[in-house]
């Protein structure tokens, strides 16, 4: 097996890192919003209660801070991005290319040897010419943006360091927060002096700020001398005898911001300093003399201006409590804080329309768009008092939109559907109290159910007539259902068998029902064709022939149908509106029995039981026959908009679940075949793009819609699963529909009542009325949990998800002492999403791992839960347990006392105390393998107790373990990865990585191909091939690949998303990250394919530079050993002319083998993308 891999992102980041708004980037003086999620950046136009997407892009690293700077263009702003590694990127919007354009950059973090783990504290001056960024220790970077745009226009991207537009100053202490206080800038440009206010603090050993007061100081920056002078020395830590003096205040604060001058009254003539801490809000003058103070928010997270003048501020608390702070008073300030209600714990807030609307971006739960209004006078300042919640208050806002956030994904498991064709993933999402949830995720187009009814088995066909009739046929019978909306208005509907059907033949099996003009529909049976009124189904006309008919098809683009007999006689029947008659418009003779028909002006097609496809032109003597891979069962013509004029394709649904695509270029030829299921394929053309729901709101900002869709350019393919097919020049786009066991579907082309774009489906013998959300590519079901989920596994026998939950200790405030809720194990049914029970753990005990396991000689599927006793005085847990659970009702083992108030579905079998935290558990050769601190331990089950088989002590802390065969891959917190082999009842190290890496997750693609994700957003590929060096009997793992993903990957799991039909079962790996992103890694076994796509990748990188990309990954090659699927799959969407240019470059290097290099490259990329 090769050592190469294909990396792809299926779902981009959803956790919001930073928000900026209002800002004018794409249009002068517009109100726009910028949202950073992981490495993704989105710009929206603010329109009342909604956000309209303008453009998207990506960076090399996660963006942790956004700033608005001044532009030389009147009415516009520049956008400044600061990444987690302290890269500073200055950008503007290019109105010609419609992308963000990089103007200048400074890699401020390249000189950082021991950088802080905190997001960068940063600020921009009032006029937007200067930027201050805190780097590390006590070092502050000052950037000068004057003349930047002119320098870019003259010579390209500006290196701010080399251009002498960036310098460093020493601020004496570490900085938690900073802001520019006074502006010495005038309308002609910046001056040589600036005043900063900094909130100084010191880090503790865990990366947080030390407890106790911080120091607030004023600093004067001389931009000419590139120096800083503090008004008073910022001495830390606070000690008795240190006094508050002008320019220095000791305060136990968490947030700080400067109030603009002339905000309200005379007291703000020179500006002010606003400080927010746990339980208080304070206001200081420019010399840090107290002006006003009041009790306030318990645990503030974010402080932002709610309007331009700065007399209204929004404060978000750690529990999602949202507060409005008003600065009032003429001669002396008056602070007024009122609670607006409970929203989401914010990581960033943007406002528009003078603070009437706000976007609350969150890392830990769903983000929200709010319409704010004035709180009532009696609204309190906080949501609680003396530790007790206040009575319920009406929120002073309305949630107008909600953006689903999957992050942070701390763990996930996969669940195959009943036929094993697709995977559903179930994520542990969210963090903190009331923010945790399970997310049941399925890739595909969501189905919004409007109502359902049981009892629809043995249905052979279904068609919608008008806006309220549904025709269903079974063997030798047909019935008509009238669907009515219930007057309750709750979305339910009622069904009744419609007896007034004089024009419909009910005693025969129906072959086809369709509309031919505004008020006429046609029914085709074995005996003939029947036309009737679409409103009351009264008869209009009929046409019959001698021989019974076998199959029929609608004439697309005409007013009639085609039908055929068993002997191969084909008839075209048209409806004349003037005479209101059915007439024969053509007859043809096939050489054998047809299985299906299709027609569109001017072409006709028939599939034969001899695996042939016959195509002829209706009014010309042109016939052509093609051989298909197998028997065709359904045909459909499809038009799509090409570069110059609409092109035609013929789709053939085959009996084995595949769809063959036939194209015409002088003559018809078989282009390619795609798989959509395992059952015979039924093809249904969409009635037209105007009748299709294409919701592209930002609440589910994943994937792109079917862009450029025109009438008749999409098909619904049903083969057990449902899929949407859309034609392009040399490929077919395919999206799965998230509805299991679909057997029939019908379109209400005129809508259902007042509901547009409605469809009817039959799934599991159940009739559904539903909408397809074609603008979305992922279906998410959310199950809120009382605590944040940390670990999860899936119990196959009971279809129950076992979830380990716990909350982080709460923040201690004067009114609310620090508390820690007890962790628990919760049981959630994967089908109904019902919470079935809870098992509560002991005090200070946390869930660290959970896995399903079976033991030799015992068919019981157990659940093993690893725990850790977490104490404040222990840097690393010294005690933990392994709990073994079994499903109730299984009498193969004795039940231990569970000690639960309510009986959960699982019972405790046995417990095992261990000297440390059980960080990971995995099933291994019908035994249980665990990592306890830095030890590997293997247990077996004997006489109802876990008995140790062997152990191995190595490394610092083992965070992840993966197994394959007799091999065990161990991910260590500092020592990268080690490979062990189990033989002779002992563990033996066989290979290790000699280069240190802070691994977060590991995986085994094969016995010789391994993956390791580190804390810097890098993915490493390692190999222990024959040529690697060795030390004694232990080999050295060679690093054969590296790709910078920008994602903090928490977990790898085997699995896949796409339909797996008629394809080799290559092991694919799903990854998930803290930002809510997930994707796949696919091994590439063919060296020629890898080298061909590697060159294509380099060509695409050169021609299609990702937005805002600044530099390659520091310290190594960015894509060594990996194919970047996110980049390669852009080849499928670029214009055909550009595809030919890139393909020709690859062909000139001798890497292609076919006469059509474009098609060869498309098939290579699609072949890899379809494997997941």
Automatic annotation (TrEMBL):
Species name: Durusdinium trenchii
Homology family: Belongs to the DDB1 family.
Nucleus recorded as keyword: yes
Official protein name in the record: DNA damage-binding protein 1
Main location: nucleus
InterPro entries with a match to the protein in the record: Beta-prop_RSE1/DDB1/CPSF1_1st, Quinoprotein_ADH-like_sf, RSE1/DDB1/CFT1, RSE1/DDB1/CPSF1_C, WD40/YVTN_repeat-like_dom_sf, WD40_repeat_dom_sf
Pfam families named among the record's database cross-references: Beta-prop_RSE1_1st (PF10433), CPSF_A (PF03178)
RSE1/DDB1/CPSF1 C-terminal domain location: 824-1133
Subcellular location: Nucleus
Assigned keywords, A-Z: Nucleus
RSE1/DDB1/CPSF1 first beta-propeller domain ranges (all copies): 24-372
